[in-house]
Amino acid sequence: MLHQFKILDHALASLVRRKYKSLAIVTVYAFIVATLASVLFLTQSLRKEATTVLQDAPGLVVQLLLAGRHELIPNDYQQTIEKIPGVGKVTPRVWGYYYDSLYKANFTLLGILEPPEQLQLLQGRLPDKAAECAIGSGVAELFGVSIGDSLLLVDQQNENLLFVVTGLFKAASNLLTNDLILLTEAQLRSFFAIPAGKATDLSVEVFNPLEITTIAKKIKFELPDSRPISRDEILHTYDTVFNWRSGMLLTVFAAALIAFCILAWDQATGLSAEEKREIGILKAIGWGTNDVLLLKFWEGLAISLSALLIGISLAYLHIFYTGAAILLPALKGWSVLFPTFDLTPAVDLYQLVVLATLTVVPYLACTIIPAWKSSVTDPDSVMRS
Questions:
Q1: At what angle do helices 289-320 and 349-375 cross, to 10 degrees?
Q2: Residue range 268-295, pLDDT digits in tens
């Protein structure tokens, strides 16, 4: 152990002697790690947000398809679905998307008959009159309104409607209520001109989660023009989308990977004359080949771990403390309401291990192999060269 500590001490002293070169390598190395880690952290955080949002979502949602497009579903389908064994309560849901041309933002409007269980009011109350609404914190920030203020929306008939804000929402996830506006169901039907007897979709309660797939097939058999969507399918879609978008970002940052490859190749092509002379002197005074390899191993490990820790720390600060202003719009998609967004820290240990393996191991290999070639060469010829 003492022998290892002495070699480590000499390795750190060698890096300090070449401080400018070491600092340059660590800087480039840390930037590459930070770039890759930022994409991984952001993807994992958004995936966790989506999972949090959907954990209280209905086990099964049924939509109506017309010419391959989502259409309003008749409430008569509710009775047909309720007759299927294993199905509990079937609830018609009325909701839609609203685009505000002034603020260039999209909102989700939801009509309610009773308070949603997965939402918690930060303050105020839910709307119970036609001219009232409850809004998410993002909507309140964009419009600059609070409880008691008026919110102006333009309905399907292009008429201006004023709604009194009665409540501001909080939730387990910011994705759930950030762009949400709650109205009474009757008001929302009037706002979007949704006729009575129809709904946007049907929320289906399934007693046994293991039977969701079977019940979805039965619904499709009974109602061929319907499209049952399970919660697991939605989660899988989110996961696929985030993986695809993160892959696009990693492709965009391929230049950083190329820079890392150039850095590793520069190390692999050989040592500098000063480093070769140092190895020759160490061999001449009695150091063995194993000692030289350990020396270069500790040097490479010190640089790799330093760059890895600095890069991961910078990525963590960028994603979870600065709001990932550079990467977030690319992964959140078209429905992003605001650039500011409080991400929940979520780190996948497996991803960190893979990141460390793909960055540290190649660098160590590219550091040790040239050192081994010089250490097995005659010290006198090494020093003369």
A1: 150
A2: 455 566 666 666 666 666 666 677 777 7
CA 54 from centroid of its chain's CA atoms: 15
Which pair of tokens denotes residue 140? 């309140």
Q: Both ends of the chain: CA-CA distance in Å?
A: 34
- Identify the CA nearest to 226 among candidates 84, 379, 47: 84
Distance in angstroms (rounded) separating the CA atoms of residues 102 and 339: 17
Digit-coded pLDDT (tens) for 148-163: 999 999 888 888 999 9
pTM (2 decimals)? 0.64
Provide the sign of the torsion angle of the four alpha carbons 331, 136, 92, 95, taken in this order: negative
Residue 89 backbone class (left: φ over 0; alpha: ψ -120 to 50; beta: rest): beta
